[in-house]
Every structure is written in C-alpha cells, then in structure tokens.
Amino acid sequence: MQSKAVKGVMWSAIDKFAVQFGQFSVSILLARILLPEDFGLIGMLAVFIAISQTFIESGLGTGLIQRQERTKVDFSTLFVFNLVVSTLIYSVLFFSAPYIASFFKQPQLVALLRVLSLNLFIIAFSIVQRTQLTIILDFKSIAKSNVVGVIFGGISGVVAAMNGYGVWSLVYQILVGSFASCIVLWFLSNWKPSFVFSKKSFQSLFNFGSKLLIAGLYAQLLNNVYNIFLGKFYPTSTLGYYTRAKNFADISSGTISSILQQVTFPLLASVQNDKEKVVFVYSKMIRLSAFVIIPMMTLIALLSKPIVLVLLTDKWISLIPLLQWMVFARIFLPMSVINLSLLNAIGRSDLFLKVDLSKFPLTVIALIITLPLGVKAMIIGHVITSALSFIINAYLPGKFYGYGPLHQLKDMMPIFGITIIMAGFVFITTYIVEGFLLQLLLGILVGLVSYLSICKLFKLRELSESWELLSRLFTERSTPIK
Questions:
Q1: Of 41, 100, 232, 413, which has the highest C-beta tally within 10 A?
Q2: How many other C-beta atoms lie within 10 A of the C-beta of residue 198?
Q3: Alpha helices (H) in 59-118, listed in sequence order
Q4: Higher model confidence: residue 212 or residue 109?
Q5: 478: confidence class by pLDDT, cuts 50, 70, 90
Q6: Rounded Cα–Cα distance for residues 357 and 313 (Å)
Q7: How distant is the alpha carbon of residue 402 from its chain centre?
Q8: How much of the chain, in percent, has pLDDT values that exceed 70?
Q9: Which is higher by pLDDT, 37 or 75?
Q10: Distance of CA 310 to CAs 11, 191, 251, 439, Å?
Q11: pTM confidence score
Q12: Helix (H, G, I), strand (E, B) or coil at 380
C-alpha cells in the first residue's frame, strides 16, 4: 500500500501539473487573442455547467472508492445512473437556455449553453473508468487521459480563436478535450458496461453519496455565486477579469488541492480503521501542503503586475488588483480539502455536509456587504470568508483526532514567518529592477532561492520531508499495481 501511495502521489502530481501547465499555456494564448467579454460569457454559464456535472457525479463514485468491497454490479449501476441523469439534465438545460440568456441579457448564451452542455454526456461516459482507476491508485492512466485531453482541446481552441471564432473557441476547447480524454480512459480501463442496474446497489451507494451530492451542489453554487451576480449587475468584461483572476489563482492552489483530494481520500480510506496511521498521514499532508502553497501564493501576489503584463498584455491590466487579492482567497484551500477528505474517508459524509452548509451564512453576509462596492471588494470579502471556512473545516477532524485548527495554524506559523522574509527580498528585487520581464524572472528566482535557503537555515522539518518524498517518488522501484 505504501508503494502504491508513493506512486499515486507521483502520477497524480505529474497529471495535475502537466494538465494545469497545459491549460495555463492555452489560456494565455487564448487570452492574448480573445477579449475579456468572451471569457465573461462562459463565466455566466459556469454555475449551470458545474451544478449539472455535480448531479451526474452525485457522490456515488466517491461511495465506491470509500467501500472496502465492490462488485461489477456496483460499477454497472453507477454507469446506468450517469447516463439517465445526464440525459435528464441536458433536457432541462436545453429548454431553460432562453430564460438563462434573458436573465443575463445575452441572447447568444442560448446556443452556447445548448452546445456546451453536450459535455455532460461525455463526462457520464467516463466516470466509472475514472472511479475504477482511482480505487486501484492507477493515476498513471488517469494522467495519460487528462494530458491527451488538454493537448487536443488546446489545439482546437487556439486554432478556432486564430480563425475568428471568438467565444466559440472556448466551447470547442472544452468539448474536444473532454472527448479525447474519455476515449483514452475507455482504451486504458479494463471495465466494459453491462447495463445492469441494481436497486439495492444504488440505495447503498446513494446513502453515502447523497450527502456528498448535496454538499457538492452547495459547494459549486458557492464557488460560482460571484459569477451570477457579476454577470447580472456588472459589464461582461468585469466577469471576464474575475474569471481570469480565479483561473490564475487556481493554477497553483487548485492543482495542489486536486492532487491532495485525489490521493489523500483513497489513502485515508484504506487506513481508516488505524487511528495512528490516519493521524500520521493527515497531519503530514497538512504541513507539506502549507509548506508549498503559502510561499507560492504570496509570490504570485507580489509578481502579479509583471505576470499579467508579460503574459497577457496591457489589455488585461484591470486584472492585476483582482489577482493580488484572489490568491490569498485560495491560500487555505489545500488544507481545507485535506480536512474535509478525512471526514469522507472515515465514512462521515453526513458531517461533511453539515460542515459545508455551516459556511453558507458567511458567504451570504460577505456578498451582501461587498456587492455594491465592486469586484475588488467582493474578492477581499472572499479572502475573509475563506480564512474562517478553514477554521470551520478543521474543527471536527481536530475533535476526532486531536489535530484541530489551532494546532494546524501553529504548525504553519514558521512557514508564514519565512514567507514574510522571502516577500521582503522579492519586493526589494522588483523595486530595484526595471522591465517587467526581468522583474518576473528575477522575482521567481529570488523568491525560490531565499525561501529554500531560510528553510534550510532554520532546519524546517517540512523541507527535509519534502525532499524525502521527492526522493522516494523518483527512486521507488516500479512494480505493477494490481
């Protein structure tokens, strides 16, 4: 199991970083060709697509991962359920498209939503394969499918944009990428559909997954609620700036969170009956994620101006102050993911739901206060609610295992302190150096060197643990995962 876990971390990391790097590169090319308004239009549809995908995924796949024993009937039941639900949801979106377009006062959203929603069928056809590969920790196959999807989707999107297809370029990118990824998953997975549906199996999976479904719907609504209000009350370009700021922040924080969620959940689920092992994995993941994410997000904030002007050109200059704040709204995300993954891993999806719902009043209050003040104020409000949400997320796991928010923050304090010193070096460097490209390159170099040097000087244990993990990733003998 330890060998599988190490390989799982390695291939999940390769997958996420390769995919994020690919998507990031494509997004830069598209942003240089397209207008902020084009990204704003897709941002208006994001909440509807995200909620629809959550219905299809429904938590049943997670229920299969959490189980200790699974049958062919369980997988087939999940497959049939996905096909039925995707058909129903697509029908709802197809006929509601005119009303959504009317709400945002954007007539072209009708065709955009009807075509983009076809992605739901592609997702439905690939969930079982992803679930099966996740259970056996075969993240190598998942990585292959994702990378192929990024390559084909990226090429189609950029070619379409260069030929003047505008916002449709983003639609083609999503659909082609998903389809290519799905084909690879079917090719690499040994599972074949039997179209058998078991009511007993469904009820068993749904008892666990229903809480995750509600939590997932709530999380997606919460994650995209700003898109709705910005799209309704502000110019389309403003939403475009907001979605790009969110995209940049998620390149780092979202990638780390995704890796941790994909690997930590099945790993914790496999040792859920051994409290000592759970605490060891849980606390170590919290510290290592903080070790990476805190300096990374701080560095992005410090270098946001050269990042935007060098990569996206000055037509995106309004993005700079939004990005500076958005990265801090995502700084606690990886640690929150680990805390919530622990609840799912021990089979307490009911508590996962309660924890998630308890954060709703914070978002509502922040939105009411900041909406009239502008998009920057809304993101600052998001920073505050994210910090409070981390404390809420860490409370119950801390209660069960003695590693709560105060203990976690205490472990992070040395990292915060070293990051502040690093920030001073980077600030001085960018102040002295002229030229945005040089500021960007030297800022990254000075930030990386100073952070690692100070960690070594103070003998920070996370530095040696990270090095040990990296060494194991690259020296672990390759053995097939069965």
A1: 41
A2: 15
A3: 60-66, 72-104, 109-116
A4: 109
A5: very low
A6: 40
A7: 27
A8: 81
A9: 37
A10: 31, 46, 17, 10
A11: 0.77
A12: helix
**3-state DSSP assignment of residue 412:** helix
Q: Is 209 exposed, middle or buried (0-12, 13-18, 19+ CB in 10 A)?
A: buried
The burial class, CB within 10 Å (0-12 / 13-18 / 19+), for 191 is: middle
> pLDDT by residue (tens digit) across 328-345?
988 888 888 788 777 766
Which of 482, 113, 450, 148 has the alpha carbon at shortest distance from 302? Answer: 450
Structure confidence by residue, pLDDT tens digits, 352-371: 777 777 778 888 899 899 98
The number of angstroms, rounded, from the C-alpha of 87 to the middle of its chain's C-alpha atoms is 26
- Using alpha carbons, select from 229, 254, 225, 189 the residue that is nearest to residue 103: 229
Tokens, residue 64: 């299969």
249 and 300 Cβ atoms separated by less than 8 Å: yes
**What are the angstrom distances between the C-alpha of 256 and each of 66, 259, 443?**
22, 5, 22
CA–CA separation, 355 and 367 (whole Å) = 20
* Nearest residue to 356 (alpha-carbon basis) of 193, 142, 212: 212
For residues 385-391, give the mean pLDDT: 89
Task: Return the exposure string of 281-307: e unless at least 16 CB atoms fall within 10 Å of the residue's CB, then b.
Answer: bbbebbbbbbbbbbbbbbbbbbbbbbb
Nearest alpha-carbon partner for 158 in 170, 174, 175, 149: 170
Rg (the chain; Cα; Å): 22
What 3-state class would DSSP assign to 404?
A: coil
Joined together, the tokens standing for residue 97 give 């498209």
- What does the alpha-carbon distance between residue 197 and residue 73 come to, in Å, rounded to a whole number? 7
